[in-house]
Design goal:
Layout: H1 12-32, H2 37-48
Length: about 60
């Protein structure tokens, strides 16, 4: 008789996606409260420990 493993394999990528979703949700909540972008960035930094980096890309108007 062959033994089958029924435990799920979890990866850190799965949890990273959840953290990103929570940060995005929290950012939307803070924006709905009417906070300015700097206050939102500070709140997210305090709550998550990472610096939010939205609206940063290599394809801005100066890249054209």
């Amino acid at each position: 008789m062959t033994r089958k493993t029924t435990t799920r394999k979890t990866t850190t990528a799965r949890y990273d996606d959840n953290v990103i979703d929570l940060v995005a949700r929290r950012r939307c909540q803070l924006e709905a409260r009417g906070l300015d972008p700097l206050a939102i960035a500070v709140n997210l930094l305090i709550e998550t420990g990472s610096v939010p980096a939205w609206d940063i890309d290599d394809y801005g108007p100066e890249a054209a």
